[in-house]
C-alpha cells in the first residue's frame, strides 16, 4: 500500500480534530501510517495531549501488531514488569509480547460500574505507566462507556480559595496488590515528571468494610487520619469535573484504540450489560512506561 506523506506539522495537529483545545485528540490513520511516524513524535504528542484516540484501525490487529503499536509511545511492559502485578489473570503471551485480554469475566471488577481510578502505581522510580486500550469486540447496546478526567487541567482552573482548602492534606498510599503493606505518605499534589504540570494525588481508595484493593489507604488532614477518605476524594473529583473541558467520555466503537497518560488523569467506566447469548466484550490492553 502506498502511504500518504506524513510530516511533523501533521503530527503536531494530530491529523484531524482536537476534542478539546487543551487536550485529547482524535486520529484516523491506518496501522502502517502510525508506524511510519517517528516514535519521538508520538511520545511528544502523548505528553502534550494526554489522551490520543485512534479510529479506523479495525479489529484484526494481531497481538504482535498491537504490541508493536505500543512501542511507538514508550517502553512496553515485559514479563518482568507484569510479574509485579500478582494475580492478574488477563495477561496473554507473557513470555513474548504481553497483552492483557480485559474482559468482564476475567477480573475482579467484572461488569459493574467502575469508579474513578488511575492505573498508576506509586512505587519505584519508573512507575509512571501509560496505557493503550483496544476495543476488539464491544457490546451490542453500547454500554461500558469510559470517561477520562484531566486532573492537571482541572487544577489549573481551581481558584486560590479552592486550592487553600487542601493545604495540610497528605495521601497515604499502599501496595494495592498487598493491602496494608508498603504504606507511604505523599503530599496532596504531585508534579508530572515529563511536563511539570501539577495535579491532585487522588486515585481508587479503600472503603472500610468493603474493598481493600486500592492505591489509596487513607487521607490525612493536618496530621489527623480521616476515618472514611472516600467522601473527601469524591469531593475532589466533583470539583475537578466542574472545571471547563476537563472531562471526556468515550463511547466505544469496535476497532478504537485509546492511548492515555495515567499520571495526570483518572478514568471510570459505566457498567457493561450484555444481551442474552452475547459474547463477553474483549478489550485488549497494553501498559508502557513513558
Give structural notes.
With 290 residues, this protein is α+β, with helices and mostly antiparallel strands. The protein folds into two domains: 187 residues, Double-stranded beta-helix (4-Layer Sandwich), CATH 3.60.130.10; 86 residues, no CATH class. Strands 1, 2, 3, 4, 5, 6, 8, 17 and 19 form a nine-stranded mixed beta sheet that branches. A four-stranded antiparallel beta sheet has the order 7-18-9-16. Strand 14 and strand 15 form a beta hairpin. The N terminus is likely disordered.
CATH fold description of the largest domain:
Double-stranded beta-helix
How many structural domains in the coordinates? 2
Mean pLDDT: 89
Helix content: 10-25%
**Largest sheet: number of strands, sense, barrel closure:** 9 strands, mixed
Give the name of the CATH superfamily of the largest domain: Clavaminate synthase-like
Q: Give me the count of strands.
A: 19
The CATH architecture of the largest domain is 4-Layer Sandwich
Query: How many whole angstroms does the radius of gyration measure?
Result: 19 Å
- Structural class, by secondary structure, is alpha+beta
**Number of helical segments with 4 or more residues:** 8
Q: What is the percentage of strand-forming residues?
A: 25-35%
Distance between the termini: 31 Å
Q: Assign the CATH class of the largest domain.
A: Alpha Beta
Unreliable stretches (pLDDT < 50, length at least 5) are 1-11
The shape is globular
Chain-wise SSE layout:
Layout: H1 8-12, E1 17-18, E2 25-28, H2 31-36, H3 39-49, E3 51-55, H4 63-70, E4 75-76, H5 79-82, E5 91-92, E6 99-102, E7 114-117, E8 129-137, E9 146-150, H6 151-156, H7 160-164, E10 169-173, E11 184-187, E12 189-191, E13 198-200, E14 216-221, E15 224-225, H8 230-241, E16 247-250, E17 257-261, E18 265-269, E19 282-289
Parallel strand pairs: 2-3
Antiparallel strand pairs: 1-2, 3-17, 4-19, 5-6, 6-19, 7-18, 8-17, 8-19, 9-16, 9-18, 10-11, 10-14, 12-13, 14-15
